Amino acid sequence: MIYIILGIIGLIAGVMSGIFGIGGGVVIVPFLVTFAGLGIKAANGTSLAALLLPVGLLAVITYKKENLIDIKAGLLIAVGLASGVALGSLLALDLPVGILKRLYGAFLIFVSYRFLVLPYLRKKRSMTELITGEEISGKFWQFLLLGLAAGVMSGLFGIGGGVVIVPLLCTLFHFEQRKAAGTSLAALLLPVGLPGVLLYNQAGELSFISAAPVAIGLLLGALGGARLAIGLNPVIVKRLYGIFLLIVGIIFIFQG
Fold first, then answer.
1. d(Cα 167, Cα 173) in Å, to the nearest integer?
2. Cα separation of 207 and 47, whole Å?
3. What is the separation of C-alpha 2 from the centre of its chain, rounded to a whole number of angstroms?
4. 163-194: string of b/e by CB count within 10 Å (b at 16+)?
5. For residues 129 and 64, is the Cβ–Cβ distance under 8 A?
6. Of 71, 199, 201, 239, which is most buried by a Cβ count within 10 Å?
7. How far apart are CA 131 and CA 128, in angstroms?
8. For the chain, what are the domain ranges?
9. How far is CA 226 from the centre of its chain?
């Protein structure tokens, strides 16, 4: 029964991943804690392990067909991610569980704010107004730093990093929402979370058996989510997701 629950958690996270360009960990971790009974650190490690496989591959192919991926930016972000995830993992493993849960609760509330209060980008640009290849070469370090920041958050909270990457690509680099989502998923295809997985495994806070059904659900759900994102404006989904994160975030803060 537990493996069915884990598969469903992965499926839901995969759909959210495909729609919003996030890795899925921001869904996986609170679900694992709430519905699978895992501790916060074990949930972080299991989430990073599930995200290690290229679970968003089918979604990336879908975005690529629509020319909604910036490969150069994605590669630079991936390098930053791999560098930052180890630092974030070390911080999470050293923190007391109570403090980590409070920090994670605050993080979830911040994410819910973005989904509930800022559902639309105020500054939308056409595809011809997005960053070009020449501009990317001039913003080499900016993309690396973006990936580094997302990597620290990834290791600290067991997330893929897309929940950090997508809004920053949109607000700081003026990417269109769907192209930001596609580029984020492309960056997360590489095993950027491997340093974190190794550290969580060494600390005994990782179950590969639990991560497997989550990864399978992610793979299937991400494809459906990408198709929804391209064809629909998922306003209702965003709001429901934001409400869920807000509730879980408040619970985590009080539990901590």
1. 9
2. 10
3. 23
4. bbbbbbbbeebebbbbbbbbbbbbbbbbebbe
5. no
6. 199
7. 8
8. 2-255
9. 14
Closest by Cα among 254, 187, 252 to 43 = 252
* Cβ pair 245, 111 in contact under 8 A: yes
Asked if 13 and 211 count as a contact pair (C-beta separation under 8 A), the reply is: no
Distance from C-alpha of 42 to C-alpha of 158, rounded to nearest angstrom: 9
Between CA 210 and CA 207 the distance in angstroms is 5
Q: Are 195 and 89 in contact (CB under 8 A)?
A: yes
Model confidence over 55-107: pLDDT tens digits?
Answer: 778 788 888 998 989 999 999 999 999 989 999 999 999 989 888 888 878 88
The per-residue pLDDT for 86 is 92
CB-based burial, 110-124: b 16+ in 10 Å, e otherwise: ebbebbbeeeeeeee
Contacts of 147 (CB under 8 A, 6+ apart): 76, 77, 78, 79, 80, 81, 82, 83, 84, 161, 165, 187
pTM, two decimals, is 0.75
